[in-house]
């Protein structure tokens, strides 16, 4: 009888405690899902129309193609056989299950700054998603770059495992923004120039870099090429909706906004804005030589015939439909790669819940020759308060060639 009573008591306690465990686990999974949003996991690991996190499209690096792998908890083709310790080690050091060394296209040099709690939450979320059987050949680099042991030397030269260290002289909001930008948000992976080995140039943090046929712009507070003319509110609006008075997101940034920043909380967006607006740089502040008057006249004519109907004769644009080109930091970047791509291939604005309209830029590759595009971009980059270097026809030809390969 005593044994029966004891069993019933233990059973009652278990039933009482189990909902608390379930609630705690659910809370952790929800927190982990938000970490996946901050890290834009879906942006790389989910193909359009594919199962969530089951593997993505190839990332074209200067060294060859790498394919984001299946990170669902499938036992054979995903991370189902990983332990939480495996996952934490991978995030902090770039060494995964069974000691496999990752390439920094998986941005562990940024994720290393994440704290253990956030990594544990992310792990809890990933183990809760639907397992998908999808074998991915992640490493498609040519020999000898496909030998992962080479990353031992790369890490020795370019990587130090280190957690984020708050700056006690800054506000909690600034530190939160720094933690996201430097860590889970891995903004430097796209926006920081790279060395010939593909490592971040820390001295040029967030000052702009070429990426898969686009130029990820300077996002420091630089007055000419960066965010110096943007307010914190401008930046929050851009990250939340994909559009503001200065720019409309396109290309890889449109994907990042759709999958990540548009789903971030308002306090986190504000924290990111506070941090980015605190970063100064001297990049792009030198005044380039004034373009040849003949090229400016030719470029103005091309602009009037092909661009002014949307962007205005004075480059003022039309609100959120057609961005202003006057005093535009995107126009004033050191690289004209993105501008040439937009003219050649056109672009579709990102769709977000707060900005469902998706205005488009038509492709003009069929209509304009390389020299005409170079002339009109030179004109735009030297008009209405802009001061950027002239664009050559060779610059445009290189972008056109990249689009046809």
Automatic annotation (TrEMBL):
<dbReference type="GO" id="GO:0009055">
    <property type="term" value="F:electron transfer activity"/>
</dbReference>
<protein>
    <submittedName>
        <fullName>Mono/diheme cytochrome c family protein</fullName>
    </submittedName>
</protein>
<keyword id="KW-0472">Membrane</keyword>
<keyword id="KW-0677">Repeat</keyword>
<dbReference type="InterPro" id="IPR051459">
    <property type="entry name" value="Cytochrome_c-type_DH"/>
</dbReference>
<dbReference type="GO" id="GO:0016614">
    <property type="term" value="F:oxidoreductase activity, acting on CH-OH group of donors"/>
</dbReference>
<keyword id="KW-0479">Metal-binding</keyword>
<keyword id="KW-0813">Transport</keyword>
<feature type="binding site" description="covalent">
    <location>
        <position position="187"/>
    </location>
    <ligand>
        <name>heme c 2</name>
    </ligand>
</feature>
<dbReference type="InterPro" id="IPR014353">
    <property type="entry name" value="Membr-bd_ADH_cyt_c"/>
</dbReference>
<keyword id="KW-1003">Cell membrane</keyword>
<dbReference type="InterPro" id="IPR036909">
    <property type="entry name" value="Cyt_c-like_dom_sf"/>
</dbReference>
<feature type="binding site" description="axial binding residue">
    <location>
        <position position="191"/>
    </location>
    <ligand>
        <name>heme c 2</name>
    </ligand>
</feature>
<feature type="binding site" description="axial binding residue">
    <location>
        <position position="311"/>
    </location>
    <ligand>
        <name>heme c 3</name>
    </ligand>
</feature>
<feature type="signal peptide">
    <location>
        <begin position="1"/>
        <end position="22"/>
    </location>
</feature>
<keyword id="KW-0249">Electron transport</keyword>
<keyword id="KW-0679">Respiratory chain</keyword>
<feature type="binding site" description="covalent">
    <location>
        <position position="307"/>
    </location>
    <ligand>
        <name>heme c 3</name>
    </ligand>
</feature>
<keyword id="KW-0349">Heme</keyword>
<feature type="binding site" description="covalent">
    <location>
        <position position="310"/>
    </location>
    <ligand>
        <name>heme c 3</name>
    </ligand>
</feature>
<dbReference type="GO" id="GO:0020037">
    <property type="term" value="F:heme binding"/>
</dbReference>
<feature type="binding site" description="axial binding residue">
    <location>
        <position position="45"/>
    </location>
    <ligand>
        <name>heme c 1</name>
    </ligand>
</feature>
<dbReference type="GO" id="GO:0005886">
    <property type="term" value="C:plasma membrane"/>
</dbReference>
<feature type="binding site" description="covalent">
    <location>
        <position position="190"/>
    </location>
    <ligand>
        <name>heme c 2</name>
    </ligand>
</feature>
<feature type="binding site" description="covalent">
    <location>
        <position position="41"/>
    </location>
    <ligand>
        <name>heme c 1</name>
    </ligand>
</feature>
<feature type="domain" description="Cytochrome c">
    <location>
        <begin position="27"/>
        <end position="130"/>
    </location>
</feature>
<dbReference type="Pfam" id="PF00034">
    <property type="entry name" value="Cytochrom_C"/>
</dbReference>
<dbReference type="GO" id="GO:0005506">
    <property type="term" value="F:iron ion binding"/>
</dbReference>
<feature type="domain" description="Cytochrome c">
    <location>
        <begin position="172"/>
        <end position="280"/>
    </location>
</feature>
<keyword id="KW-0408">Iron</keyword>
<feature type="binding site" description="covalent">
    <location>
        <position position="44"/>
    </location>
    <ligand>
        <name>heme c 1</name>
    </ligand>
</feature>
<dbReference type="InterPro" id="IPR008168">
    <property type="entry name" value="Cyt_C_IC"/>
</dbReference>
<dbReference type="InterPro" id="IPR009056">
    <property type="entry name" value="Cyt_c-like_dom"/>
</dbReference>
<keyword id="KW-0732">Signal</keyword>
<feature type="domain" description="Cytochrome c">
    <location>
        <begin position="294"/>
        <end position="384"/>
    </location>
</feature>
